[in-house]
Amino acid sequence: MEHIRCLIIGSGPAGFTSAIYTGRASLSPVLYEGMLPGGQLTITTEIENFPGYPEGVSGTDMMADLRKQAQRFGADIRQGYIEKIDLSQRPFHCVDDHGNEFEAEAVIVATGASARWLGLESEKRFYGQGVSACATCDGYFYRNQVVAVVGGGDTACEEAGYLSTLCSKVYLVHRRNELRASKAMQTRVLSNPKIEPLWDSRISEILGSDLDGVTGIDLENVKTGEHSTKEVTGVFVAIGHTPNTAFLNGQLAVDEQGYIKIAYHGTATSVEGVFAAGDVCDPNYRQAIVAAGRGCMAAMDVERFLQSQH
Which CATH class is domain 2-114+241-308? Predict the structure, then answer.
């Protein structure tokens, strides 16, 4: 059976940075790219806030750069994903999606988190044609247009605030009659003349055509059942994220939202020899630069852990 010193699960900024650092430490890391090689940034048009790219960079290009850099230092990057992993004893027994079995002395989980959706067929139909889960990624395309943001928490308010700097008007669609966001965020949003809250409302349908993309939303008042429509060209869904941890089968401690719990001053999880980095353990920041930094931390933690075992 193949024996791996450091297994990295996930290929976003956290995973690739972990691979760069563990590769330079001569740990011969093996990285599984997962179902979305490069992570969520590969569906991002342009990244303008990652240090080192003064003119901005596409998410695909940045992930390609990180991938090449990891390979330069000897990382074994494999297509596919980890289907099963047994964390009950070290070395950890793993099975990938092709049925290959191997053992790993240490594991870095960097599988990220996936955006939650409304569950509408029209949402799937218009994804990339007016439907998005990232205002900072796609807001540029809606300059001087009218858009809608769905949600009532800090993320939705942040998205609405950001879009208000680009768009002529932003509808904030929320099922309740008050926001769940922090008081400071609520004040900022409710005092913004470009943001109009639509209380007690949910989107029952996203309207549009294959030619024009999104053209509007059908709203249902959750208290009265009455329907109304609003003309918008973009719908930004901001109702939270789900950490990609299903393959772990509950073997690691998680918080109430499902994010992996890590050590306060590090990346160690509840299982010795398993570390986590990136959005899979970060409900607060969800930024590429933060994920990359945590990937560095996880790699250094793995190096120290493996040294302590010999």
Answer: alpha beta
Pairwise CA distance, residues 167 & 231, whole Å = 13
- Residue of 9, 83, 306, 92 lying closest to 18 (CA atoms): 9
Please name every residue paired with 235 in a beta bridge, in sequence order, or none if there are none: 131, 148
Q: What is the pTM of this model?
A: 0.81
Say how far apart CA 163 and CA 166 lie, in whole Å: 5
CATH code that applies to domain 117-237:
3.50.50.60
Q: Which positions are annotated as active-site residues?
A: 134, 137-138
Cβ proximity of 6 and 60 under 8 Å: no
pLDDT band (50, 70, 90) for residue 128:
confident
Same topology for domains 2-114+241-308 and 117-237, yes or no?
yes
Question: For 157-177, what is each residue's pLDDT tens digit?
Answer: 989 999 999 999 999 999 999
Least confident of 96-105, 113-122, 296-305: 113-122
In this structure, the number of other CB atoms found within 10 A of the CB of residue 217 comes to 26
Cα-Cα-Cα-Cα dihedral sign, residues 240, 287, 97, 272: negative
Kindly list the domain boundaries of the chain, sorted by start residue. Answer: 2-114+241-308, 117-237
Quick: pLDDT tens for 229-244: 999 999 999 998 899 9
